[in-house]
Amino acid sequence: MKNYSAFDIIGPKMIGPSSSHTAGAARIARIASKLVKSPIVKVDFLLHGSFAKTYKGHGTNRALMAGLLGFKEYDENLKESLKIADEKNIKYNFIPTDLGDVHPNTVKILIYQVNNQIVEIMGSSIGGGNIKITELNGMKLEFVGEYPTLIVKHIDGPGVITKITKVLADANINIAFMSVYRQDKGKEALMVLECDDNLSNNIIKTVEASSESVEEVYLIDSL
Length: 223
Description:
Distance between the termini: 26 Å
Oligomer: single chain
Structural class: alpha+beta
CATH class of the largest domain: Alpha Beta
Strand content: 25-35%
CATH superfamily of the largest domain: D-3-phosphoglycerate dehydrogenase, domain 3
Shape: globular
Strand order of the largest sheet: 2-1-3-4-5-6
CATH architecture of the largest domain: 2-Layer Sandwich
Largest sheet: 6 strands, mixed
């Protein structure tokens, strides 16, 4: 039998009518905002399943934009997020689509930046405001945003994992969960390290310098 927490039963503190369609949506997009390293020019929200059918009525569109702007699900700015995006000259599209065999409350977010780089992330709102991120820049992965999380894009090779985890050990940071996803041996890989302790921006610089195989590092605060 599953044990339910008070959060599961009562739901999160939030603006909007639905924990799945507003709180969860805002959280997915807020994680996406942590991956942005240059001002946003345009964003496409590809909406699947229930998100596609009810995004206007449940305010999913406003929640997604609010999260991308860095607002939390209970922030009053959520209601005005589209207006705020317009003021920032951020172009946006909400596009109902079929993302395949995924959770019915799923969105893929494509973020176009001033530096001409594109961030692509997919996540699902799985109930009670809880979320699961399932894809980053075309690579499959999985994390839930409940812990301070470090995502390291690197080239797969001997010793890379050891060098990166040593950085955390030297900083007295405990790793709660760790997963590594790769395209193939010696090819691009993603390391996801969910930690028990808060992570500083200095960790990013130290991890980047730990190995020539490290290409990019993202720090995502716990939700």
